[in-house]
Amino acid sequence: MRERDMAHFPGSFPTTRMRRLRQAPWLRSMVSEHVVSVSNLVLPVFIREGNGLREPIDSMPGIERISIDVLLETAREARDLGIPSIALFPHTPEEVKSADGREAVNPDNLVCRAIAALKNRVDDLGVLVDVALDPYTTHGHDGVMSGDEILNDETVDILVRQALVQAEAGCDIIAPSDMMDGRIGAIRRALDDAGHARVAIMAYAAKYASGFYGPFRDAVGSAVSLGHGDKRTYQMDPANSDEALREVALDLEEGADMVMVKPGMPYLDIVRRVKDTFGVPVFAYQVSGEYAMLEGACRNGWLDRDRVWNEALVSFMRAGCSGVLTYHALELARRL
Ligand code: PBG
Asked: How many angstroms does the Cα of residue 173 sit away from the middle of ligand 1?
């Protein structure tokens, strides 16, 4: 019900008793407005070179960097549990990083090999891949630099090539996470020209310059490279909300099929505004720092695991998300 209709139907005590519908589990479930199901989850996975390797990530208890053979097992389990798609994030060996991140456009890089392996060996599972240079640059930024400046148009040219090698390898969804201006349009045109009209774009449209990405940068090994640098000249100011709507409008105009808001829980107001304004599929990324906070507290016994994870994930659905990228996806799917 819209707020304005509610004014005509206020109800009043004692005729109206809100607790009447909360009496029993069956009744609560009958009037429940939102639910998280496995089909709403996207599983982000950190991958690395090697064989048979599972390497824990200190700041993300329970999450590991895994080699491609292990990834195939994880992917099959995710698919069998009903998770529709997984998102790949490479931990790039230092020796292949460079100032211009050229490993990003190598058709035989770790991510492309992982995409091909998944597409050849695991049916019925969507593969989503980031477009951004930070896993590949020595300075840890998402684009190429001149002095202290992150160059927009030069970066977009490289991102287009990165998107093309990933599409060529077979990925289903390209997810530009770099926040350069104009990259969605450039990538869409290039994909179409190269015969990849089927490849969808999920734009990280409203991506904020957030402290909550800390553990992710450890996981992909870009934290050391970035050092004390930050991404405030391209990612959004956490204080802004109207600006997110402009970002989303531009990305949709340029051809995005779906948009993402990131981080997740601190930005649910943005999800709701985007959903109400545009009515397109909106996803949220419950990022590494959010995972670390919740899981860390649960592991210390300070929070009740099942309850807080469910509560956190249903909050995304209530805010208007079509789905959530969450490191907790596999755990939740096992439990549901
Ligand atoms: C790379 C990228 C980042 C995340 C996803 N893609 C980090 C960043 O922008 O610095 C963060 C995800 C997370 O924290 O879980 N552009």
From this structure: 17
